[in-house]
Amino acid sequence: MTKTTRRRLILGGLASLAAAGLSSGFGTAKAKDAQRGRSASPDQPLPPRLKIKAVVIGSGFGGSVAAYHLGKNKVETLVLERGRRWDVKPGKPGPFATSTNTDGRALWLSEVDLLVTDGPKNPIDRYTGIVERYNEDGIIVWASSGVGGGSLVYNTVLLQPSKTNFQKVFPSSIAYDEMSREYYPRVVEMMDAGPIPDDILTSPSYLGARVFLEYAKRAGIHTERINTATNWHVVRRELQGKVEASAIAGEIWYGGNSGYKNSLDKNYLLQAQRSGYVDISPLSNVTDIRELDKGYEISVDRISEDGTVVSKHKIECQYLFFGAGSMGTSSLLVSAKHKGTLSRLNSEVGRNWGNNGDTFGVFNTGSPAGSSTGGPAHPVGLDYEDNPYGPQTVIAFPQADNDEDALIFLGMALPEESGYFDYNTNLNRPVLHWPAKSEAITRLEERMEYTLKRLASEVTPVSARQAAIESVKVQVGATAHPCGGAVMGKACDDYGRVSGYKGLYVVDGALIPRGTAAANPALTIAAIAERCMDRIIKEDIR
């Protein structure tokens, strides 16, 4: 693959096919019995036609939880994932591209690095890479692909929203106390998450975190160490030079070659496959959904690693779970509604979409701030009481090759604005529309700017403070946390059941109303999916 090297600023062989025929599952019953309770079964070839009890589209935080519970309850299940596997193998070079040597592995079927908004967009090989950039009407959206979905590319942050913020966003029927007592802890435990240990935080590579914490303390902004799905033992090995520097080198967006991320393929999906009832089919891109007399038919393209369609498949199932993320799930449902293949979808499908209140910000400190090392994100600032524009969460995160005297932040708030999807017949696909210049978006920018200026006002020496305040920049035109499009209480019930349909469910970010209450969505999506699956398994699956 062609490699390119330059500084950037982020602000803004297919398996052979099985013989034709209609199958009730993969492999023989005897072979499956031998698998159950042991190591995860390998990915199986996809036959041209297949009938199976349950299908999960997507393997991110919602889809993985669904697959785990279906396998645990002995439901024959197929997970369809458009992306490839990204396995980190001990002692071997990591599979991921890096921020300093970007190639096709970084971007989903793109010929230029579309994450770059500052500087030239260098050519890369077209490949089924790990991040897709959606250039929508009014907003840029980044979404992941690969077995494990967003857990491959996020900062490993599992931030639980406050009760006050949660109750402002979610229906009253979703009890925060139950979520906090049962479902949030369940996800944290499964993903083996915990806060950054003292010995790592005080190491030279984590200067940026310490600088942020000091500024926040002086500014009176409450901070916490976030539960992160990070293997801190691996990070220690990075610090000791025993494995490739990845987390400590600020490598986040394109995966982690040291294996420091406790991504979903290492827990929920691994346990699902170990049950012997769940198979995963990577490089399987769902194109259409159709209602049958009993159940659903899914059209699937198997693709090669350069995106070429290799074969086409039809899969029938009784239970269908959407876990393709807000962008994927919303697009599939809006397309099915337009084409009449799911004709009873209600008028709320494609609506109530939000950007999670995301903003990106930066300011210059005037002295070394360690902003290119020490990842993933770990401390969080909660500016909830004193911000006149509303609650603002800020997370400082490292970015490889960033200016050493700058701090970069992700901001998250309570979104006040909604977008919607419709079907564009000229483009022959759904399009997301976002009111980028509304007053609500201006307030979102002002909210983040206020918090960053509070932090910049604590820069030392005192003579550098005014320059730091004036250097504050905030961007609101992009999000890595899309939410909504098939929202609970509108397009679905509070357990993800799609209105008007039996056996059709949404268990991912599309179910979330616009955002997850000034927190990143990963933990809340998984916790809501846990809540949904408890009820669905108990009441629906027969």
Overview of the structural elements:
- The longest helix is centred in the C-terminal third of the chain and has 19 residues, at 521-539.
- The protein contains 12 helices and 19 strands.
- The chain has helices at 29-35, 61-72, 163-169, 176-190, 198-201, 207-219, 232-239, 268-274, 325-339, 439-456, 465-470, 521-539; strands at 22-23, 49-57, 77-80, 131-136, 139-144, 222-225, 278-281, 284-292, 295-303, 309-322, 359-364, 379-383, 392-396, 406-413, 420-424, 429-433, 473-475, 478-479, 504-506.
- 55% of the residues are buried.
- It has 542 residues and is of the alpha/beta class.
- The chain has 2 domains: 54-87 and 106-193 and 285-357 and 417-430 and 480-542, FAD/NAD(P)-binding domain (3-Layer(bba) Sandwich), CATH 3.50.50; 194-261 and 358-413 and 437-476, Cholesterol Oxidase, domain 2, CATH 3.30.410.10.
- Strands 1, 2, 3, 7, 8, 9, 10 and 19 form an 8-stranded mixed β-sheet that branches. A 6-stranded antiparallel β-sheet has the order 6-12-13-14-11-17. Strands 4-5-18 form a 3-stranded mixed β-sheet, with no helix packed on it.
Question: Topology of this protein?
Answer:
Elements (H helix, E strand, L loop, with lengths): L21 E2 L5 H7 L13 E9 L3 H12 L4 E4 L50 E6 L2 E6 L18 H7 L6 H15 L7 H4 L5 H13 L2 E4 L6 H8 L28 H7 L3 E4 L2 E9 L2 E9 L5 E14 L2 H15 L19 E6 L14 E5 L8 E5 L9 E8 L6 E5 L4 E5 L5 H18 L8 H6 L2 E3 L2 E2 L24 E3 L14 H19 L3
Parallel strand pairs: 1-2, 2-3, 2-10, 3-7, 5-18, 10-19
Antiparallel strand pairs: 4-5, 6-12, 8-9, 9-10, 11-14, 11-17, 12-13, 13-14, 15-16
